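In the lab's daily routine, each protein ends up as an entry in a very long ledger. A line of letters takes care of the sequence, but it says nothing directly about the fold. The fold becomes a row of whole numbers, each drawn from a learned catalogue of backbone shapes. The protein below has been through that process, and both of its lines are reproduced in full:
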Amino acid sequence: MEKIRFIIKDIEDDWPPVKYESMWGEKNGNSFKIKNAPFFLDNLAFDDIVEIKKLEDDLYNIEKVITPSNFSTIWLYINEDRDISTLLREIKNLKCGIEGGVIDNYYSINIPSKFVLDKLDKLLNSYVNQNKVIIDYPCIKGE
């Protein structure tokens, strides 16, 4: 497994706050199997196999998804610090992967199936209704 840096093409209003995203995966020629949930690249999820193109020494572009996985990705920003540990524990109990650390209170959630996504939506609805979280759905599968 290796980490590859990908260019982010769609930057609007200073979001995302980076020009590149590094992702773990398995490189095989011009393909790359993603092994983490992306933070800023749309339409990608864990275990997707993408076609890549080398741009510079350590920078790549994702050309297209060759083989989509069954995983989905959502991005979650938690507004209230006191809710973080409880909410993250509940998400993990649904067997979702959680990655953070790029921006405070911002997480990329790896969702293994549509069934789990439906359960996660029910869990997050009360947090959304109370303005405790902001959610973006960059890659939803199985609709």
Notes: The domain at 72-139 is CATH 3.30.70.120 (Alpha-Beta Plaits). The two ends are 30 Å apart (CA to CA). The mean pLDDT is 92.
